[in-house]
């Protein structure tokens, strides 16, 4: 449980950092522990922006399930650590940059 709390806090702070760097893509970061979610802004391109981002993340080995109309969830296993967060964030950032180009 301690790992879920500490790693979840780190994960959420890193997602918020990506949201600040790419506010045209990532908004509304939320959650508790390792159960997190964020919205992909429809204004980022088209109404398929979330689908495109999920596809790019999948190409990079990241499972990014959806929820609702524009939300991507993150519900990793309980042994998820900060180094795993770093990998997720790197792949998320790479995916956004690829879609922006």
Tell me about this structure.
This protein is of the alpha+beta class and 101 residues long. Helix content is 50%, strand content 19%. It contains 3 helices and 4 strands; from the N terminus they run αββαββα. The protein has helices at 2-21, 49-59, 82-100; strands at residues 26-32, 35-40, 66-67, 71-74. Helix 1 (2-21) packs parallel to helix 3 (82-100). The radius of gyration is 13 Å and the shape is globular. The model has no long low-confidence stretch (mean pLDDT 92).
Radius of gyration: 13 Å
The whole-number mean of residue pLDDT values reads 92
* SSE string, helices as H and strands as E: HEEHEEH
**Number of separate helices:** 3
Question: How many strands in all?
Answer: 4
């Amino acid at each position: 449980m301690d790992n879920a709390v500490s790693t979840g806090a780190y994960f959420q702070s890193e997602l918020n950092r990506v949201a600040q760097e790419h506010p045209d893509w990532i908004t509304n970061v939320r959650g508790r522990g390792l159960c997190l979610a964020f919205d992909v802004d429809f204004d980022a391109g088209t109404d398929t922006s979330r689908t495109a981002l999920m596809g790019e993340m999948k190409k990079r080995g990241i499972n990014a399930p959806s929820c609702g109309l524009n939300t991507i969830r993150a519900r990793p296993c309980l042994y998820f650590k900060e180094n795993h967060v770093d990998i997720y964030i790197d792949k998320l950032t790479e995916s956004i940059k690829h879609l922006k180009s």
